Structures are given as C-alpha cells and as structure tokens.
Amino acid sequence: MPKYKRIVLKLSGEALAGSNTVGIDMDYVNLIAKQVKKIYDSGVETGIVVGGGNFWRGRDENNIDRATSDYMGMLGTVMNALALQDSLEKLGVITRVQTAIEMKQVAEPYIRRRAIRHLEKGRVVIFSAGVGNPYFSTDTAAALRAAEIDADIILLAKKGVDGIYDSDPNINSDAKKFDNLTYREILNKNLKIMDATATTLCMDNNIPLQVFGIDEEDAMYKVVCGEDIGTNVK
Ligand code: UDP
Prior knowledge:
The model has no long low-confidence stretch (mean pLDDT 96). The strands form 2 sheets. The protein has a 9-stranded mixed beta sheet, sandwiched between helices. The protein has a two-stranded antiparallel ribbon with strand order 7-8. It has one domain: 3-Layer(aba) Sandwich (Carbamate kinase), CATH 3.40.1160. The longest helix is centred in the middle third of the chain and has 25 residues, at 66-90. Helix 2 (26-41) packs across helix 3 (66-90) and helix 5 (138-148) packs parallel to helix 7. By secondary structure, the chain is of the alpha/beta class. It contains 8 helices and 11 strands. Bound molecules: uridine-5'-diphosphate (UDP).
C-alpha cells in the first residue's frame, strides 16, 4: 500500500542519458517510465520535475552570458520532459507537460491550480523549464513545486549513487552512507546533494526528501510504500 497521497519525483537529466553522459537514451527512459507507471497504477498523485544536465548546465559555460546559458539549460529540460511524456503515454499513463517558460505550441504553461487539478484527475504532471528563471536549479524547482502542490515528499532519484554519503562513494571507497539526515546537517556538512537554495526551501517548508538510487529494482515504488531505502531527510 502506498504511504503517500501526492509526491514530487525529481529526475536529473543525467538519469535520462542512461549509460551516456549527454543526450537521451530512450531505452533507459522507458525503464524509468515503467517505474513511474507502477506508482501511477497504485494511485499516488505524481508530479515529476525533470533536470537538464544531460544537455546543458548554465554555470559550466564561461563563454556565454550566465543568464543566457541558464535559459539554454531550461530549454534542455523541456526536451527531457517531452521524451518522458512520450515514453509514459506509450505505457498508457496519462500525462501533461507544463513549462515554466511559455511555449504554448509545445506544452501547457505552468499554472498551479491547473497542475493540482490534473493530479486530482489522476494525470502525471511533468514540470519543465525549472522555475523559469536563471540562477536557479531544477532541484529548487522540485522544492518549489512540492511546496506549491502540497506534496507529501520529494523523491530524489539518483543515478550512480544510492543515497547521501559523506564523500563521493565512486571516488572514496571509505565513504559513509547516511540513513537519516536533517536539512540543517546537509547545510552544515556542506553535503553536495542539492544546492543550498533548494535545501533551504525544503527546510523552511518542512518537506521531507528521500534520496535513493534509480537503478535498484522497483526503487520508486519501494519509497512510495514507505521503505527506508537510500537516505531520508527531514
Ligand atoms: N536552470 C535554470 N533555472 C531553473 C532550472 C534550471 O537556469 O530554474 C538551468 C541551469 O543552467 C541548470 C540547467 O538549467 O544548470 C539544467 O538544470 P539542472 O542543472 O538543475 O539539471 P540536473 O542537474 O537536474 O540534470
């Protein structure tokens, strides 16, 4: 039985790239979509915030004005949203993509009350283009949308790591995994799981977060059913 009524799932762009670092791997997207369908079938209202790091990260390019570069990153998230939508709809999951930057020919603009209505009607809402402003991240978009739609929890699905560690477990074999953390500890220990803006937004609005590895079988469903996999943050 699902533990939560309404969730926000944050998928990084990297997660949609499969074994590559750039672009979209549709075989991998289809695997993610199958996991989402399982949550959908269990009746949990699901909003998904997609990242764009598989196409562009604004801060990584010094030769382009930062704001312009960030807008490019936001456009990348829309491509990811459309790929995920296509994959989900092929599985029979009803979806709506909303964009924080208007592009009406492509998808609906983000309208909070409309998003909530979609969720109530059992549609998966894919939130794209971040918060619609440069200098922010899609993690912050996940925190903001979760607060706005009154989600019970944010699921932070990670690729290549199965929770929060005190150092990168792919580099340091002695890295220690945390089962439970507070947002204050994330800030104080300077843990690189989310940027400070997103962390603070979650902390100030009491939104719990569960960080887990997307490659574990049925990971999303386990989290939705209240299993303590990965790291819980409160
Ligand atoms: N971005 C932005 N404002 C937002 C969300 C994203 O400017 O509200 C830009 C920013 O340049 C970021 C890029 O879009 O680097 C891709 O998003 P993010 O890095 O959060 O994606 P992820 O790491 O989750 O794949």
